[in-house]
Design brief:
There is one protein chain. Helices cover about 20% and strands about 30% of the residues. The chain has a single domain, classed as Rossmann fold (3-Layer(aba) Sandwich). Strands 4-3-2-5-6-7 form a six-stranded mixed sheet, with helices on both faces. It has a three-stranded antiparallel sheet with strand order 1-9-8, covered by helices on one side. The chain starts with 6 loop residues before the first strand and ends with a strand. It is of the alpha/beta class and about 180 residues long. The model has no long low-confidence stretch (mean pLDDT about 90). Strand 2, helix 2 and strand 3 form a beta-alpha-beta unit. Helix 1 crosses helix 2. Bound molecules: guanosine-5'-monophosphate (5GP). Guanosine-5'-monophosphate binds next to strand 5, helix 3 and strand 8.
Length: about 180
């Protein structure tokens, strides 16, 4: 359809949608009465962010952070550059960072430092995927969609050399 049959399915479209709905319900419960701002980390979280926010039944605001890594890598270096910053201050707000995947944790460690100086009331993390076997920096993850093995995954926002973000499922290339 919109992709390539080289990928094996790791998480189906139905399983993603069901889990995203559950996360939205949890976030709604936890953030009721607070000043929630969802911060999507581009580009990988774009699909997750779009689906998740529709299951959070709160008057939230949305911001996006553009990050770029150097080159089309398949391994995390933790060396990231902010290509698009927030457009509104988050001081005294409850920030929830929405990530596609946490691998080494280096990107989130960098982002947490980036946020502290903006004096939000709180900073939480919601990631669709977590690969715990590669952890270098142990960052506290408040919401995790799926914990997965150490595979390079694509689809549902995640790219392979910038392509295949539009796959509705999470796939991987078989060794
Ligand atoms: P970390 O800094 O936690 O090692 O890596 C986080 C970033 O690395 C993610 O936001 C994502 O851009 C990229 N990344 C890590 N693992 C994968 C993967 O399996 N597939 C894809 N497409 N990107 C990944």
């Amino acid at each position: 359809m919109n992709g390539d049959d080289r990928f094996k399915i790791l998480v189906t479209e139905d399983a993603i949608q069901e889990r995203v709905r559950e996360l939205g319900v949890e976030i709604t419960r936890d953030y009721r009465g607070r000043d929630l701002v969802l911060v999507g980390v581009l580009k990988g979280s774009c699909l997750f962010m779009a689906d998740l926010c529709r299951h959070v039944d709160l008057p939230l605001t949305m911001e996006f952070l553009g990050l770029s890594s150097y080159g089309d890598r398949t391994e995390s270096s933790g060396v990231v550059q902010i290509t698009q910053d927030l457009t509104h201050p988050v001081e005294d707000m409850d920030v929830l960072l929405v990530e596609d995947i946490v691998d080494t944790g280096l990107t989130l460690d960098f982002l947490m430092d980036h946020f502290r100086v903006r004096k939000p009331r709180s900073v939480g993390i919601c990631t669709l995927l977590h690969k715990p076997s590669n952890t270098v920096k142990d960052v506290q993850l408040d919401y995790v969609g799926f914990t997965i093995e150490n595979r390079f995954v694509v689809g549902y926002g995640l790219d392979y050399e910038q392509r295949f973000r539009n796959l509705p499922y999470i796939g991987y290339v078989e060794d």
